[in-house]
Each structure stands twice: as C-alpha cells, then as structure tokens.
C-alpha cells in the first residue's frame, strides 16, 4: 500500500458507497483504490482479500458486515471513502455512515435493477439532501440492459437520473462507455442531446440559454455546461448516471472522475469552534477504543482535551489516526471537513457530539430491529465473559440494545435478521473465543394507548417519602413516538424533581401492559407535589413508573405489530398459489401487474406471519421468484393476535413489592 500524503490546502471529498447486497459495492471500492494508486494489487471479495473487508467473518463469507473507512487521492483531491454493507441485516452501519457523507455513489446492478435496499438508501439520501452519483454496475453480465435499468431507476428512484455516458454494448459485448461531455458523433449525438435537454429543463436560466443558443458543439462549450450539471448535482436537482463492469475494471476511471467532478467538497473552517460527531467505534489491540469522528468545524490535535457535548464530559485525545482496514498511522491532527479515528476517549459512544452540535446534520433512521433473541452460552463460567463481549459489541452497534437481566442471568439482543445472528455467532467465536447460541427470534411488538385518561400516584408511605404525581395520557398518530410536557408550578414541584420525572417517563414506558414498549402517545404532568421535610431526591424515581403504570392500567393498551412493504415478482403459473399464501399471511396487496409470463404483486404484510416465507417461496418456484421487503411502520394488531412478553423486574402496579424492590436497589447502588 502506498502512503497517502495530503497537503492541508488540497481539496477533499467525503463519499459513501451504497448498494443492495451483491451489486458489486466492495469490488468497486477495491478497483477505486487500485486505479487511484492507493493499493498496488487488487484484492478479491470471493478470495477474502478485499481491502475494506478485513474482518475474519467478512473474508470467510464474502459479504461486508461493517462500514469500512479508507481513502485515496485522485487528481490532487483527497477522498475519504466509507464502504457500507449491502445486506439489510446490517442497515445500522449504513444509517450511521449516511450522517457524515457529503456525497454518495449508489451502485445499481444492471441485471437486477433497483432492489429493496436500494430504495431504502435512496429515500435516506434524499431526506438528508446528499448529492448522489448513480453507478450501474455489472454491465458485462448476462441480462444486463442499460435502457431497462435506467427506466427502473427513473420509476423507483428519480426521473432526474440523467446518463452522462452512453453504454457501448451490453453483456459479453460491453466495452465501456462513451463520454457525453466530449464532442458528439452520429452515435452519441441523440444521447448527448437528451442529457443537455434534461439539464436545461432543470434550470430556468439554462433553458432560456439553450433555446437562444442551441446545444453547445465544441469542447469548451460542453465543459461550461458540465459545470452547470455539477452545480445542479450538488443541489440534488440532477443525478448523473454512469455505467461500468467493476469486476473487469471497466468504467472505474470515469467513476473516479465523476466523484471528483460531481460531488461537492466539504464545508467548514479549521479555526471555527469545534463541532463533530462520532459515527463508528472500534477496538484496537494497541490503541484501545478508537472513535471515528467526522469533523464539521474546528481542529483536534494529539493531546487536546475535547468536550463531549452529548454526555457533558471532557476527554483527553491521545492520538489521531488515519485507518485503512487493519492498518493505521498517527497523523496528529484532524481538521474541519475530514474523517479520522480519535484515540483516548474512554467514555465516548456512537452518536456523541464533540464540541458544539450546531454544524452536525440530522440523522436518518433506517434500521429498526424487528426481532429479539435470547443468548445462550455453553458453560456457566462463561457468563461474565459473554456479558463483557456483548457489551463491547453493543458499543460498536448500539441497535443491538443489550438487555442484561442480572437477577435472571439472562441476556437479550435486538437484531435485524438471521444473517446478523450467524455473523454475531462467528464474531463471538473468532474475536472472543466464546461459543454461544441464540434462541428462536421473536417479533418485537409495541403497545399504544386505547384512549385518553390519567395516571395518579401518591407515594407517601412508608416514611420518609413524599411524591405526588398526576399524568394526562393521550394517544397520538402512528410514528409520533413519545411527546412529554409538564404543566406544574415550580413552587409545587421543584425544577430538579420535574427534571427527574422527565427522565423517568421514557424508562417507565419501556414495558406496558403486555410487556412491550408503549409508543405514539403524549404524556403531560398536570399535577405534582413535593414535601419540604419528607421528600427524598429519589422519591420521584420510585413514583414516576407507578403513576405511568396506573394510567396504562386505567386506560388500557393495544398491541401494534411491525409491517413490511413488499414487491414480489413470480412466474404467472405460481400466481394463484402465491396470492393464496399472501391472504393466509394477512397481507394487503394490489391487483397483480402482468409483464410477459411474470406477475408483480406489491403490498404490505405483517413481519410475524412472513418470517419464513422467502425460503418457502424459493422452494415453491424453484428459485424463479424474487421478493424484496422493507420495514413500513407499525399498525394495530387484529383482536385475535395475542403477544405478551414476560415483564422484567417487579410490576409497579404491585406497589408494596415494587417500592421495596426499588428502595433496595437504590440503597445498594
């Protein structure tokens, strides 16, 4: 690997590589590194030698499970690249990477076209307004069709996807692409005209110019219009489309040019107040905890003390390192617009804001774990090591949401799917030397209020204690989450006690009447009292869950189940059987769309009834069907669906036992 030296004045790009699984994302990244001169020899996903797939499990399986940060230089521009996983089970890695990107390359297979993960990522890119280059890969494969995949992109992603190349052949005849920014000949002229017209119609001033002057003919005129195309790409008005076959290295140089030409440089001032975010955490045998930071403003140097705004603590930086797979080097400084691993911050977590949050963009929530599993281990003596290992993995992926039930000696995780469980099993074995198994995954339900009402608690016995609370609780539309407010006077309830109640309400709603999290509601504290002599600062820690559960028991709750949006394409001969299956799974779907001898069915289906259907469908159709799904929110369960989860800890409705339990826990902590 060649060393990378960037002078401080050079330009920079921060680019994420995104795709559905098997679209060729890691292979493309490998060729970008090779063509740019960053690596001297090409690795292979199939042989487990790809630069960005460096975990043992990635090399063995040939899939990416973690976002990998690497870098290269092209035409004096320093490019930070984050190669993200393509499998839906590792969507949380994609979610965290999106937040720190200034531009994106979205890879679409020329054979399969737009798939479910492609659409999920696209919507997130649009929500965050991240300029995007679309790269159609695998143009050399049987079934590749540039026109068909372009129509697919325009239908499912954006009508403003505009080719800046003309593919030269397809399948075994694919020989690269013609650049439409070069003076046209008879073959490229129609495609160039389409590109220029799409560009002109995006901007009123350009349209007037195009109507007045006509299409530019020479190289100088085309270069001028290309700058306008880049400007509109940076504004997310246009999305350039390029074609290639990464496995053969075809189209890679043009993609490198596209990254530099169309995607914007980061903004930010090195001398401004510090503002950055932690988007990834790894553990290094030598350096310990390494926090990957995207810095938006300011500068961090070795031995600086920085403010963790999220946790309200100061931490000392020991080293700043540029990381490439297993290798890293101390660079000593991290400036605005750049990405690096910051060592020494022992308490930092993913999502923490460093310095001020003013310059840090919002995040797009993509990954919603829909399954929960219990962890089992071989020997009783392994229990402490398993807890420690899973806590370390949960630090690296917070969505695992490790639930450690000390009294029951149980460990529970939230996961996205079965592939993630297989990978976790392998990581625990390879990295920690632990043999674990997982119980049968169960669907994560939620609860919401059945109506509007109040919850009340007067915690005045046994003395000394005094905490009186009354909550108004009302349901909200799906997806609203929890909204909390307080309408009490500070002389009735001191601000510090009100703050304690506000902290405890979300925790109290983690387990409702059926044991699931209660969502989509507004909780308002409408009455509160403390006592000058008898109130203890921790009384509201005890009282808040009692008041909330009193409200839930009076009002009642309804079960909500997770739903999937699906698109199913199947040979027409199996259509009747498939639609019957969908009805049995409680799916709601539109009339099938026929195209040739195949039909496409779109609709929504509960997760609980469709967990194993992909396997059944493959067996039924001998692999001739395709099913793509993505999470589509929660909705109310039918009355006959029962799903109760055992409660963790003592139920606050059993007041005497609960008070005794919490008091003992507080006194021993």
What is the fold's blueprint, element by element?
Elements: E1 11-19, H1 25-35, H2 56-61, E2 68-74, E3 77-83, H3 91-98, E4 103-109, H4 116-127, E5 132-137, H5 146-156, E6 161-163, E7 165-167, E8 177-179, H6 189-202, H7 204-213, H8 219-234, E9 239-243, H9 252-262, E10 275-284, E11 288-297, E12 299-301, E13 305-308, E14 313-316, E15 319-324, E16 327-330, E17 333-335, E18 339-343, E19 353-355, E20 371-377, H10 383-396, E21 403-405, E22 410-415, H11 418-432, E23 436-438, E24 442-443, E25 446-449, E26 453-459, E27 467-475, E28 482-486, H12 495-508, E29 521-529, H13 539-555, E30 557-571, H14 575-584, E31 588-589, E32 593-595, E33 598-606, H15 607-610, H16 613-621, E34 626-636, H17 655-668
Parallel strand pairs: 1-3, 1-4, 4-5, 5-9, 6-9, 28-29
Antiparallel strand pairs: 2-3, 7-8, 10-11, 10-19, 11-18, 12-17, 13-14, 15-16, 15-18, 20-22, 20-23, 20-24, 21-22, 25-30, 26-27, 27-29, 30-33, 30-34, 31-33, 32-33
């Amino acid at each position: 690997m060649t060393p990378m030296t960037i002078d401080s004045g050079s330009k920079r790009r921060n680019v994420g590589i995104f795709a559905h699984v098997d679209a060729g994302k890691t292979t493309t990244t490998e060729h970008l590194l090779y063509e740019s001169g960053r690596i001297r020899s090409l690795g292979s996903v199939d042989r487990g030698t790809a630069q960005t797939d460096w975990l043992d499990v990635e090399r063995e399986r040939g899939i990416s499970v973690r976002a990998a940060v690497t870098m290269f230089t092209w035409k004096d521009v320093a490019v930070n690249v984050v190669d993200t996983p393509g499998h839906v089970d590792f969507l949380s890695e994609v979610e965290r990477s999106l937040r720190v990107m200034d531009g994106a390359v979205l890879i679409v297979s020329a054979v399969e076209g737009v798939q479910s993960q492609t659409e999920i990522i696209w919507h997130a890119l649009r929500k965050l307004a991240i300029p995007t280059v679309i790269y159609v890969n695998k143009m050399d494969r049987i079934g590749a069709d540039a026109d068909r995949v372009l129509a697919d992109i325009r239908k499912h992603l954006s009508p403003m996807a505009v080719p800046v190349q003309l593919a030269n052949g397809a399948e075994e005849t694919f020989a690269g692409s013609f650049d439409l920014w070069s003076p046209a000949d008879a073959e490229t002229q129609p495609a160039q005209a389409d590109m220029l017209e799409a560009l002109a119609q995006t901007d009123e001033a350009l349209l007037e110019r195009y109507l007045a002057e006509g299409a530019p003919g020479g190289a100088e005129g085309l270069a001028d219009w290309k700058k306008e195309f880049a400007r509109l790409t940076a504004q997310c008005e246009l999305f350039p489309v390029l074609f290639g076959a990464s496995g053969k290295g075809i189209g890679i140089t043009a993609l490198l040019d596209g990254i530099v030409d169309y995607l914007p440089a980061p903004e930010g001032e090195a001398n401004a107040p510090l503002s950055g975010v932690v988007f990834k955490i790894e553990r290094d045998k030598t350096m310990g905890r390494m926090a990957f930071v995207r810095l938006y403003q300011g500068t961090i140097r070795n031995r600086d003390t920085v403010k963790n705004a999220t946790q309200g603590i100061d931490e000392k930086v020991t080293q700043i390192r540029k990381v490439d797979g297993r290798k890293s080097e101390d660079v000593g400084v991290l400036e605005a617009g750049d990405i690096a691993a910051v060592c020494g911050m022992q308490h930092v977590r993913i999502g923490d804001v460093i310095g001020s949050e003013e310059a840090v963009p919002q995040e797009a929530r993509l990954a919603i774990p829909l399954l929960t599993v219990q962890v089992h281990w071989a020997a009783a003596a392994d229990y402490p090591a398993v807890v420690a290992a899973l806590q370390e993995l949960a630090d690296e992926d917070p969505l695992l949401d490790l639930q450690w039930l000390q009294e029951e000696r149980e460990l529970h995780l939230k996961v996205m799917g079965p592939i993630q469980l297989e990978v976790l099993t392998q990581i625990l074995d390879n990295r920690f030397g632990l043999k674990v198994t997982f119980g049968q995954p169960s669907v994560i339900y939620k609860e919401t209020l059945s109506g509007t009402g109040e919850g009340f608690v007067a915690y005045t016995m046994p003395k000394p204690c005094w905490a009186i609370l009354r909550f108004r609780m009302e349901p909200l539309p799906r997806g609203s989450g929890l909204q909390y407010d307080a309408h009490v006077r500070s002389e009735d309830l001191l601000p510090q006690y009100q703050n304690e109640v506000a902290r405890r309400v979300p925790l109290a709603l983690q387990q409702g009447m059926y044991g699931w999290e209660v969502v989509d509601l507004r909780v308002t504290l409408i009455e509160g009292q403390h006592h000058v002599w008898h109130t203890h600062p921790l009384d509201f820690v005890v009282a808040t869950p009692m008041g909330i559960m009193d409200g839930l028991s009076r009002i009642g709750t309804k079960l909500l189940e997770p739903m999937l949006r699906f698109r199913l394409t199947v040979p027409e001969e199996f259509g009747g059987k498939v639609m019957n299956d969908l009805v049995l799974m409680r799916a709601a779907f539109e009339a099938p769309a026929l195209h040739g001898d195949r039909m496409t069915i779109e609709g929504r289906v509960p997760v609980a009834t469709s967990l194993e259907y992909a396997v059944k469908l493959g067996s039924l159709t001998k692999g001739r069907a395709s099913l793509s799904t993505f999470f589509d929110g929660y909705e109310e369960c039918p009355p006959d669906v029962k799903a109760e989860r055992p409660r963790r800890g003592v139920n606050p409705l059993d007041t005497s036992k609960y008070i005794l339990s919490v008091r003992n826990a507080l006194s021993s902590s």
